[in-house]
Amino acid sequence: SETQAAIEKLEAAIEDAIATDCFDRAEALEEERRAAEARLLAARRDLEELDRRMAALLKEAEELEAAQASLESAIEQAVASDEYDRAEELEQQRKAADERLGAVRGALE
């Protein structure tokens, strides 16, 4: 990464500064290097958190798709049994699952 390359350049510059007895410069470069390492660590943590969120969203999407299929089957059964109130209730649940699935898919993009 760019940050890792910058860290390596700073390390080389630190060595050069020490070799030429520019200790104040070496100290300033060392502070820069530490800050760059902190940014790199923060970026890695952010990526790990993003990976966790993506995995959770993918799992939720799978669960919602399964719930939709189950609800559609239950709706068909309710209609076949002339349970129209139950079918309407299930349809509302299916619509809510569909809306949530749309939101999850949007978050995944």
TrEMBL record:
Keywords: Coiled coil. Residues 19-107 form a coiled coil. This is UVR domain-containing protein.
